[in-house]
């Protein structure tokens, strides 16, 4: 029995767990069938596959080199930035000369010169034209997306390239979009019609009163202020204080129908906006002022000036001989372009140039002007942007186009370079001050001991290190060498109840180091207390100085917070409006009244020179337009 047990030991129970030594058993079996012949065959197979793959790679590489060698990449890559009309978003224009590839993509990255993450757009359709305008009207997509939803951002640096399927061609430089694209402020407009006598009598007003439709603040013009007031009333955020204001705002009313409060609605507001934008010339209510006893012909009220635009050559381009300036003229106001009243002028840095001179108007083709270059030519001063050509036109309603001008660089054989780099077109010259330009004298007023003194640091828009109202920190276009370094200033002080506490005048002097106007003002025996302070200088809007709620102690000197003053108040009524605009135009090189309005006040010519450089031209006009977003002083 014992023998049986030894010969047949009991079997172990069945297990469903993999034995720990199962792997060695597997490899033993595998290598048992892996003979020397099999191993040699596998080695040969690997070598054959490797050689074949290498051959294919060499063929592909050779093919790419051959293709690259026979194709030409795009060239002459250029980029320009501007603002998309009506002026509230950036626009980027890419141009190039295409190569031989049938595929072309434009890649753009933000602050990434390597273009690791980028937006792109297929510009193959433009492969022959070589131009693409990137804006809110034509957006790009992220390279990992199919959604075209990215438009250029303001004040942003970008890098770009073109990809033709074989290689990348980088843009020559990065580019930056404009810091800001402000929406232009509409120029004030005269009401197209006025309330008839029957309406004035119904309102209890004298029948000879002048109340224009659309003018609800009674300043005789329709402006952005009127639009804002009407908008507030329509939104229920405010009410008019006079019934006549509701009548003036109800421009969508039937003629001779008195208006009620609820008559002013979104339709009236839309008409006001269209009128300011130049899209309509009159209101529905206006026929009420037209006599109906006898038929009258339809009268076109044209208040829209024509446009004259220089088409070529490019601004800043180098001209080495006589050249042609191409001009487009057009009129959309209804009265039509006056074909006998198109003109041009040339302003040369060192020569007489050409005064306003008649020229052909463009009709179906561009009008061409011949400009001469040389020692006796229209453009005779060698240098960068030394010669400026300006064009203008009139329509039959006697509206004048806003002048368009371009500056050109000049060189020719035998010319002597002009040492100056300051471009000042000749034209209407502002009165020259007796002080030395650019001087920085220190004001030394005699202030009695014990008086309170206010120390001022004031930035004047367009001068020194002060920009303009829309971009106060950008002084790249400001005049750092003003002709009038000494300016008057008036300081008004009010107590906590807004009662006048002091009103003193003094002088501020331009400091070339800081680019600001500084000075100390004797405030007399101003009593101790908390005050509000406002400052004004001739030609600038009055401004409230923030943060002056201090416990002023009589007899001490206080450094008031710095403040910038808005320019353009030429008639010194603490407002910027059509009255100042008319004076500016009359005093400028574009005067249409032989300076009649300008000569009415000896200060007009001085204060119209907003850039204070001795000439009143398109640069003063452009600064005036940028300042118009603030129309009233504090």
From TrEMBL:
<feature type="compositionally biased region" description="Low complexity">
    <location>
        <begin position="419"/>
        <end position="439"/>
    </location>
</feature>
<feature type="compositionally biased region" description="Low complexity">
    <location>
        <begin position="475"/>
        <end position="488"/>
    </location>
</feature>
<keyword id="KW-0812">Transmembrane</keyword>
<keyword id="KW-0472">Membrane</keyword>
<protein>
    <recommendedName>
        <fullName>Dockerin domain-containing protein</fullName>
    </recommendedName>
</protein>
<feature type="region of interest" description="Disordered">
    <location>
        <begin position="1"/>
        <end position="21"/>
    </location>
</feature>
<feature type="region of interest" description="Disordered">
    <location>
        <begin position="419"/>
        <end position="447"/>
    </location>
</feature>
<keyword id="KW-1133">Transmembrane helix</keyword>
<feature type="region of interest" description="Disordered">
    <location>
        <begin position="461"/>
        <end position="497"/>
    </location>
</feature>
<dbReference type="GO" id="GO:0000272">
    <property type="term" value="P:polysaccharide catabolic process"/>
</dbReference>
<feature type="transmembrane region" description="Helical">
    <location>
        <begin position="39"/>
        <end position="58"/>
    </location>
</feature>
<dbReference type="InterPro" id="IPR036439">
    <property type="entry name" value="Dockerin_dom_sf"/>
</dbReference>
């Amino acid at each position: 029995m014992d023998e049986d047990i030894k010969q047949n030991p009991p079997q172990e129970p069945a297990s469903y767990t993999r034995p720990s030594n199962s792997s060695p058993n597997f490899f033993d079996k595998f290598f048992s069938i892996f003979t020397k012949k099999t191993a040699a065959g596998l080695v040969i197979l690997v070598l054959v596959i490797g050689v074949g793959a290498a051959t294919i790679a060499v063929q592909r590489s050779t093919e790419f080199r051959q293709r690259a060698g026979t194709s030409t990449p795009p060239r002459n890559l250029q980029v320009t930035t501007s603002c998309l009309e009506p002026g509230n978003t950036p626009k980027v224009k890419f141009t190039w000369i295409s190569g031989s590839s049938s595929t072309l993509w434009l890649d753009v990255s933000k602050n990434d010169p390597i273009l690791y993450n980028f937006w792109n757009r297929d510009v193959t359709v433009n492969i022959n034209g070589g131009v693409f305008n990137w804006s809110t009207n034509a957006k790009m997509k992220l390279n990992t997306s199919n959604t075209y939803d990215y438009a250029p951002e303001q004040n942003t640096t970008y890098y770009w390239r073109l990809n033709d399927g074989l290689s990348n061609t980088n843009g020559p430089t990065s580019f930056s979009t404009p810091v800001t694209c402000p929406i232009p402020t509409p120029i004030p407009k005269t009401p197209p019609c006025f309330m008839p006598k029957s309406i004035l009598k119904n309102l209890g007003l004298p029948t000879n009163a002048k109340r224009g439709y659309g003018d609800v603040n009674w300043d005789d013009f329709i402006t952005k202020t009127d639009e804002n007031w009407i908008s507030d009333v329509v939104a229920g955020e405010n009410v008019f204080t006079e019934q006549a204001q509701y009548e003036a705002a109800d421009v969508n009313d039937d003629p001779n129908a008195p208006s009620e409060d609820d008559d002013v609605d979104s339709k009236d507001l839309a008409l006001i906006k269209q009128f300011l934008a130049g899209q309509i010339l009159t209101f529905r209510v206006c026929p009420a002022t037209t006599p109906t006893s006898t038929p009258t012909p339809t009268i076109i009220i044209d208040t829209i000036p024509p446009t004259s635009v220089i088409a070529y050559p490019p601004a800043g381009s180098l001209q080495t001989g006589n050249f042609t300036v191409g001009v487009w003229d057009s009129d959309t106001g209804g009265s039509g372009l006056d074909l006998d009243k198109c003109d041009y002028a040339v302003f040369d840095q060192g020569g007489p140039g050409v005064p306003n001179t008649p020229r052909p108007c463009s009709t179906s083709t561009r009008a061409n002007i011949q400009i001469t270059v040389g020692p006796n030519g229209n453009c005779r001063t060698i240098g960068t942007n030394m010669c400026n050509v300006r064009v203008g036109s009139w329509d039959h309603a006697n509206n004048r186009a806003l002048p368009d001008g371009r500056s050109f660089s000049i060189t020719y054989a035998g010319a002597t370079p002009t040492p100056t780099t300051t471009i000042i077109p000749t034209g209407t010259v502002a009165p020259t001050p007796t002080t030395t330009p650019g001087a920085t004298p220190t004001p030394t007023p005699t202030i009695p001991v014990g008086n309170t003194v206010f120390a001022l640091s004031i930035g004047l828009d367009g001068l020194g290190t002060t920009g303009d109202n829309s971009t106060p920190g950008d002084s790249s276009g400001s005049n750092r060498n003003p002709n009038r370094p000494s300016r008057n200033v008036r300081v008004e002080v009010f107590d906590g109840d807004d009662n006048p506490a002091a009103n003193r005048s003094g002088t501020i002097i331009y400091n070339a180091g800081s680019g600001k106007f500084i000075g100390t003002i004797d405030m007399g025996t101003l009593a101790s207390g908390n005050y509000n302070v406002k400052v004004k200088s001739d030609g600038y809007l009055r401004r409230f100085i923030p943060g002056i709620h201090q416990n002023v102690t009589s007899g001490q000197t206080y450094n008031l917070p710095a403040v910038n003053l808005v320019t353009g108040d030429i008639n010194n009524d603490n407002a910027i409006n059509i009255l100042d605009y008319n004076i500016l135009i009359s005093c400028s090189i574009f005067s249409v009244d032989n300076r009649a309005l300008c000569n009415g006040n000896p200060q007009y010519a001085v204060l119209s020179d907003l850039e204070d450089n001795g000439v009143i031209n398109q640069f003063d006009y452009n600064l005036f337009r940028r300042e118009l977003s603030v129309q009233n002083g504090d």
